[in-house]
């Protein structure tokens, strides 16, 4: 994981956030896992990815469920199927939602994602042992 850069200066914090490279934006765009997934994987949150199934928990689209259609790192938003708005000309457009405002219900798991989950799980387990 990349070392987090934090500044007490509002100006520097905002500059770091909005000029962050894609690799750092991926980590910033993490979403919490549902209670069931959290118990199953012993991981609290993970960077969101296309084809994850999520539930919106904040905002006017609260309660909507769907699959992540795209992850728009440049704007720090994700697009979810069935979370749309109709334009004045009748065209339907996706509404961007920040990943922190959703909960992941189902992960799209492949070998790379499994390795990430295992890495986080091991880190959490060693942290718990150190505290004892």
UniProtKB/TrEMBL annotation:
GO terms for molecular function: RNA binding; structural constituent of ribosome. Residues 7-17 have a biased composition (Basic residues). Residues 47-74 form the KOW domain. It comes from the Eukaryota. Keywords: Ribonucleoprotein, Ribosomal protein. CDD domains: KOW_RPL26. Coiled coil: none annotated. GO terms for cellular component: large ribosomal subunit. InterPro entries: KOW, Rib_uL2_dom2, Ribosomal_uL24_CS, Ribosomal_uL24_euk/arc, Ribosomal_uL24_KOW, Translation_prot_SH3-like_sf. Residues 1-23 are annotated as: Disordered. GO terms for biological process: translation. Belongs to the universal ribosomal protein uL24 family. This is Probable 60S ribosomal protein L26. It comes from Cephalotrichum gorgonifer.
